[in-house]
Amino acid sequence: MQQPDKLHRFTFADLPLRGELVTLTQSFREIRDRHQYPPAISALLGEALAAVALMTATVKFEGRLTLQLQSASTLKLLLVECNHLGHVRGLAQLRDGAEPGGADFRELVAGGQMAITIEPDQGKRYQGVVPLSGDNLAACLEDYFLRSEQLATRIRLLVNNEAAFGLLLQNLPEHQGTDALAHAGHLAETLSLEEALSLEHEDLLYRLYHQDKVTLFKPQPVRFNCSCSRERTLRALDSVDPEELQKILAEDGAVEMTCDFCSTVYRFLPADLSAGTDGQGSEPTLH
Ligand SMILES: [Zn+2]
Question: What is the pLDDT of residue 1?
């Protein structure tokens, strides 16, 4: 059955843990369809999108959280973002000429690192960086939480062509070192891809934790939304060499900029560039 995009937080009555579940269907497909990534990269992008939604929900703030993978191997860059409104977007870049054969995470990101950046609308930016030393993205994120926040965490990320699912379990800060996480984490390991992507969150928690009293909070919507705009793109052109812009205008009659996240093409005519954002321009078109 098709699940709508949503994120749930939950707690256990008798275990000092907090948990979150996220399912991305429409948002994942919209992001996937705006790019033409090989299946292994699409799958990793799905995992990262589920992960960034889970991570955003662990932080109380207004702003955005970015998860970035960089490596000198096949995957040059993978960047996903989620904000406090549940708006997600993401992109991936492969190294020129690189062909991801299988979906082996270690091969895709060999020698790489992961950066988590929290950018509140108000206040200080925070960034944590860890090496990508785990067998998969979930293991790397568990490592990040332990190193950066001293929080023991269990994460499962499951994807297929159509949807991405994430489950996070975390010790409450004042209850490190209990065996509750091992117990709940062990049960979470029994969840299959099919169950994760077909069961309602309520049913899924019942399937895993019917012996542990679970309280599920109100779901939060998650959706694809790119924050790019014509104005921002025009401002970005300020950093381009004016001579270079003039050359492009002379040759093509317009300057086109494509958003790497959503593939929207913004086209600027000479009048737009001289008049700033108030100029007459064509509407953005989607390729
Ligand atoms: Zn965009």
Answer: 52
- Of 114, 115, 20, 121, which is closest to residue 64 (Cα–Cα)? 121
**177 Rama sector, left if φ>0, alpha if ψ -120 to 50, beta otherwise:** left
With a cut of 80, say whether residue 150 has pLDDT above it: yes
Kindly list the structural domains of the chain, giving each domain's residue range(s) and its CATH number in brackets, ordered by start: 6-224 (3.55.30.10), 230-286 (3.90.1280.10)
Degrees to nearest 5, angle at CA 203 with 201 and 204: 60
Q: Distance from the CA of 247 to the center of ligand 1, in angstroms?
A: 25
If you measure from the C-alpha of residue 236 to the centroid of ligand 1, how many angstroms do you get, rounded to a whole number?
13
- Calculate mean pLDDT across residues 26-41: 94
Rounded to a whole number of angstroms, the distance between the first and last alpha carbons of the chain is 31
Ligand 1 centroid – CA 90 distance (Å): 10
- Residue 159 CA to residue 50 CA, distance in Å, equals 9
Q: Which amino acid is present at 222? A: V
Q: What is the C-alpha to C-alpha distance for residues 115 and 134, in angstroms, rounded to an integer? A: 14
Q: What is the Å distance from ligand 1's center to 32 Cα?
A: 13
Q: Across the beta sheet with 255-258, what order do the strands follow?
A: 255-258, 264-268, 285-286
Q: Assess whether pLDDT exceeds 90 at residue 251.
A: yes
d(CA 173, CA 44): 29
For the packed helices 201-209 and 180-188, what is the interaxial angle rounded to 10 degrees?
120
User: Global pTM?
Assistant: 0.91
